[in-house]
Write a structure and sequence with these properties.
The protein is α/β, with parallel strands linked by helices and 301 residues long. The protein has a single domain, classed as NAD(P)-binding Rossmann-like Domain (Rossmann fold, 3-Layer(aba) Sandwich), CATH 3.40.50.720. It has nine helices and eleven strands. It has helices at 14-25, 56-63, 80-100, 137-151, 173-184, 202-213, 244-255, 274-278, 287-299, and strands at 5-9, 29-34, 46-50, 68-71, 105-109, 156-161, 164-166, 190-191, 199-201, 232-236, 260-261. The strands form three sheets. A seven-stranded parallel beta sheet has the order 3-2-1-4-5-6-10, with helices on both faces. A two-stranded parallel sheet has the order 7-9. Helix 2 (56-63) packs across helix 3. The longest helix is centred in the first third of the chain and has 21 residues, at 80-100. The chain is globular and about 55 Å long. It starts with a strand and ends with a helix. The relative contact order is 0.14.
Amino acid sequence: MTSPIVVVTGANGLVGRHVVAALTERGATVRAVVRRVGAAPDDPGVEEHVGDFADPAFAGTVVAGADALVTTVHPLGGDAEAQRRVGLDGTLVVAEAAVAAGVPLLVHVSTAAVYDRSPGVGDVSEDSALVGDDADDYAVIKRDVDAALDRLEGATRVLVRPPAILGPGESSVWNSVRPAEIRDSETERHAPPDKSFAWVHVTDLAALVADVATGAIPVSADPSSGPVAAGCTPVNVASEPATQRDYLGTVARALGVDPVWEDGDAWTGQILADRARGWGWAPKVSLQDALAELEEGVRAL
């Protein structure tokens, strides 16, 4: 059996880099799409492809003959226009190129932020209500990307929806960016202590993405056992329950500052990952280990 060829956009990002590593561990040949020469992971089985995946000509070239496409890019720090241009329009360019080239499988790293998690909503599954247009730009645009991929026919599409992604790295929102904000601004230290902090470690997220992209999780007629063949299947990927007391408390302790615990309504449900578990996925990183890693990294700030 020949090794699958998998295209990964954003291969030098936090998620992309771990996805590339998980894919090569599974014997895949990875076409790592990056914007700068030398930015791709230097791993065996990785081919660096430098270019803009939103350019139809480049996109068509990089996906030709591939077995799967994994899209991971979204400009978290950009304004709404930039997020739509790169996260939505750019993702659709490379996804449509893949479909036109006959790539049978598209895996998109979405987010659990697409779900309505207002106070009182309760637990959230793949069938739960999505955010409305009055939500923040990130949630709305990611929701719209998912909807556009759902309408795209001609391939099996999988929407992987993680909540907060823990794991070290300069671009890591929850291990680096948010802790820096908490360090620098007292207003960022306020939270209801019992508010849910749904999370997954980046290595566990990457494992699910790689298993889907390489066919280790085969397609199915039933979404409870695998991605629906030629359909669009969302799948939540979340680890054990946690709260802001766990996350903010750990970050504040590492920084040597005091969290400000507030009363008030907050979402206290969980992101249910029963579908992912039905596909054979199980997280390996415990909350205790993830928080210990988080604290060690934050102390370096």
